[in-house]
């Protein structure tokens, strides 16, 4: 199993590659997400020392992936185990 640091680095790299492929700048992404450029750069670099707690990082990752149209939910479900966050569970209708 990956460490949380490895997971953040891998997801951050995927998001950076998608951003560059779509020709967005850090400034454009930061403005669209209402985040600082340094926080987006830290996520892309996998620098946990410059990121908030994991639960907030998950939200940032979800917002960023949605902005870019990148599917990373499966990666986050694996990462959720690090902070006791359970993935959504489908409840059968009665």
From TrEMBL:
Transmembrane segments: none annotated. GO terms for molecular function: DNA binding. Signal peptide: none annotated. This is Helix-turn-helix domain-containing protein. Pfam families: HTH_25. It comes from Microvirgula aerodenitrificans. Residues 15-75 form the HTH cro/C1-type domain. InterPro entries: Bact_Cytoskel_RodZ, Cro/C1-type_HTH, Lambda_DNA-bd_dom_sf.
């Amino acid at each position: 199993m990956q460490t949380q640091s490895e997971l953040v680095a891998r997801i951050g790299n995927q998001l950076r590659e998608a951003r560059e492929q779509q020709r967005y700048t850090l400034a454009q992404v930061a403005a669209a997400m209402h985040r600082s450029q340094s926080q987006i750069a830290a996520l892309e670099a996998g620098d946990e020392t410059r990121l908030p707690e994991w639960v907030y990082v998950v939200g940032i990752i979800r917002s960023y992936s949605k902005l870019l149209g990148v599917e990373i939910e499966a990666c986050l479900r694996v990462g959720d185990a690090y902070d006791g966050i359970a993935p959504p569970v489908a409840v059968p209708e009665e």
